């Protein structure tokens, strides 16, 4: 039974994550990988030589523009993916010293990169490049010779054969080609014949070798991403290359998912991996999906010769499996050591939404033993295949968790929510979407129905955030700005929904400055003059007393308070007029502190609203919450 080859060399971080995999006899004298992301990876083929002081700059975004700000988050291209996370270096490549790689570069077989080059784009096979940015000076051989070398693939010979032919390998190219003419023969077997038939029918074929034995295996993620991206109506096929020992594990993973999808499942094929048949397979495959395993380098060698599109399994799902379908809303579920009963109730409130397209992204920030597979299978059983679960082994804070989800999101709008908070009714996501499109709002919020658990029942609470709704009803942006930024009458983060590109850009700006206050971005937006719409209908069931600011105790409150202080400090540095207005208010406050003034503002706003409307609970149907929590709901 053929076995998959193993990498000769793998370099790992201190946390055990592999950052570089190299094939037989490849060497790197020294280098630097500029990225903290565990997914980034350098895949090197066989007999490659890399000199000293090689820098792999794997971060996305450049420094060549007029502004240093990452405007890529606003662009449509970034919406479809967060950059290529794998750099690929082929076989028989020579990289001289002091070379800089930008992330996602591919260097073809036989290429030479001269000292000091800065690689900004792919390097063709057998090209010689130099400069900043690097450009092709010339090619080592003519096109016909390069084609022959690509077919001979001497680097795949057994090592003893390479040793026997060192003199001729180092000698004249014509002498080499006379002795080792490439073999030309049509490979035909059942798999290749099947692929030929599929291509004749117009199918797009993906090829993937599951990294079942790897402790960092991503094969389950890739297979699930494919099954969630396509249906039986899409002309797509996923061909899995398996060794004999892997077939059982892969079947156990796929069968429950395929059973759940039934006749709607897209086409999945398997074959026994054999390097001799890769040439035939890639004559018909359209896409190769790579991993960190050395086998990927072998596959890349054959795939690149046939101009097959190459994606890395850790890249964003939409980059690997592109779809024409546009998604309206990405619902991002922020999870950290959740109550699973509440989590499933929250997910239930999402999957029942109608009149809009949506995806669910669950970002879990360091929960031990997080049941990812069970949650994902449950979502599939509810008919929700547009789902992604991102689990971090450690807790990095809500802002980084949110940023990770935003990097995977494909919706035009973002709705963030936490376990225990529920969408009010089955149609509110679509209604909010239509309101935002009609009013041309980049950001908007709806009403909250506050509740807390009281023994075996749930009690509604008569309050809101913000308490003063009049400025939003009157679309008085100056009054809204003053109420939020100066008087602290904040909009509850759970109520907001916004355009993805704007949310992503503002969130990226606070990464590293703010840890847990992901919703402070809305204060920044208000301070920057971005209007926030108010959909005056019930939008969210909001559970009081379970957020990190309440159930986490004083330590959590201090952390969140620090985040808010940082946010307000940044705002005052950017908007001197707000700082001056705040100072003016304090100067005429007769010794009262800003906290005193904020408390009075909120008290007055509450009393005024109750006097006019009688209650913040407008047209609330307790039955909607009862259906989610399966318990009686009463008014406080």
Question: Globular, elongated, flat, extended or rod-shaped: what is the shape?
Answer: elongated
* CATH uppermost class of the largest domain: Alpha Beta
Figure out the total of helices: 24
Give me the secondary-structure category. alpha/beta
Low-confidence stretches: 1-7, 60-81
- Percent in helix: 25-40%
In CATH, what is the homologous superfamily of the largest domain?
A: Spore Coat Polysaccharide Biosynthesis Protein SpsA, Chain A
Number of domains: 3
CATH architecture of the largest domain: Alpha-Beta Complex
Distance between the termini: 70 Å
From the alpha-carbon coordinates, what is the Rg to the nearest angstrom? 29 Å
Structure in words:
The protein is α/β, with parallel strands linked by helices and 636 residues long. The chain has 3 domains: 9-140, 3 Solenoid (UDP N-Acetylglucosamine Acyltransferase, domain 1); 190-320, Glycogen Phosphorylase B (Rossmann fold), CATH 3.40.50; 332-635, Spore Coat Polysaccharide Biosynthesis Protein SpsA, Chain A. It is built from 24 helices and 30 strands. α10 (295-305) links the parallel β19 and β20 (309-312).
């Amino acid at each position: 039974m053929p076995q998959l080859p193993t990498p000769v060399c793998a370099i790992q971080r201190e946390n055990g994550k592999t950052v570089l995999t190299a094939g037989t006899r490849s060497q790197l004298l020294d280098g630097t990988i500029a990225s903290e992301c565990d997914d980034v990876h350098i895949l090197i083929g066989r007999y490659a030589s890399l000199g000293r002081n090689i820098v792999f700059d794997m971060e996305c975004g450049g420094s060549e523009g007029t502004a240093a700000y990452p405007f890529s988050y606003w662009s449509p291209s970034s919406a479809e993916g967060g950059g290529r996370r794998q750099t690929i270096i082929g076989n028989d490549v020579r990289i001289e010293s002091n070379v800089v790689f930008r992330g996602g570069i591919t260097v073809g077989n036989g290429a030479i990169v001269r000292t000091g080059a800065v690689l900004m784009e792919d390097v063709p096979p057998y090209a010689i490049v130099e400069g900043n940015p690097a450009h092709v000076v010339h090619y080592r051989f003519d096109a016909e010779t390069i084609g022959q070398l690509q077919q001979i693939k001497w680097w795949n010979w057994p090592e003893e054969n390479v040793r026997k032919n060192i003199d001729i390998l180092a000698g004249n190219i014509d002498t080499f080609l006379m002795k080792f003419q490439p073999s030309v023969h049509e490979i035909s077997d059942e798999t290749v014949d099947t692929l030929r038939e599929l291509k004749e029918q117009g199918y797009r074929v993906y090829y993937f070798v599951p990294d079942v034995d790897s402790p960092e295996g991503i094969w389950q993620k890739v297979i699930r991403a494919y099954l969630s991206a396509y249906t039986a109506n899409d002309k797509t096929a996923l061909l899995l290359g398996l060794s004999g020992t892997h077939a059982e594990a892969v079947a156990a993973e796929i069968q429950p998912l395929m059973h759940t999808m039934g006749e709607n499942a897209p086409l999945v094929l398997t074959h026994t991996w054999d390097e001799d048949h890769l040439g035939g397979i890639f004559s018909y495959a359209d896409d190769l999906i790579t991993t960190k395993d050395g086998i990927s380098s072998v596959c890349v060698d054959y795939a690149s010769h046939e101009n097959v599109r190459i994606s890395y399994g850790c890249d964003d799902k939409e980059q690997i499996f592109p779809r024409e379908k546009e998604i309206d809303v990405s619902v991002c579920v922020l999870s950290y050591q959740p109550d699973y009963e509440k989590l499933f109730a929250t997910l239930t409130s999402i999957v029942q939404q109608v009149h809009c397209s949506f995806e669910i992204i669950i970002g879990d920030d360091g929960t031990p033993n997080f049941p990812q597979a069970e949650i994902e299978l449950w979502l599939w059983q509810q008919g929700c295949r547009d789902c992604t679960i991102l689990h971090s082994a450690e807790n990095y804070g809500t802002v980084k968790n949110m940023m990770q989800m935003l990097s995977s999101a494909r919706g035009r709008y973002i709705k963030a929510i936490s376990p225990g908070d529920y969408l009010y009714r089955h149609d509110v996501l679509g209604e909010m979407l239509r309101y935002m499109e009609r009013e041309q709002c980049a950001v908007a919020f709806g009403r909250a129905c506050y509740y807390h658990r009281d023994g075996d029942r749930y009690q509604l609470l008569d309050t809101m955030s913000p308490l003063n709704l009049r400025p939003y009803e009157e679309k008085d942006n100056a009054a809204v700005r003053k109420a939020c930024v100066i008087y602290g009458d904040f909009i509850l983060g759970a109520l907001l929904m916004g355009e993805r590109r704007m949310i992503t850009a503002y969130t990226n700006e606070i990464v590293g400055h703010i840890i847990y206050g992901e919703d402070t971005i809305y204060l920044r937006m208000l301070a920057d003059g971005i209007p926030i719409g108010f959909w005056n209908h019930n939008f969210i069931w909001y559970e009081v007393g379970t957020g990190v600011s309440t159930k986490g105790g004083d330590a959590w409150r201090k952390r969140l308070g620090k985040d808010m202080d940082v946010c307000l400090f940044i705002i005052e540095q950017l908007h001197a007029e707000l700082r001056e207005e705040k100072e003016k208010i304090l100067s005429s406050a007769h010794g009262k502190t800003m906290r005193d003034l904020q408390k009075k503002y909120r008290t007055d706003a509450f009393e005024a609203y109750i006097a006019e409307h009688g209650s913040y609970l407008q047209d609330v149907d307790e039955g909607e919450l009862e259906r989610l929590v399966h318990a009686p709901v009463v008014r406080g």
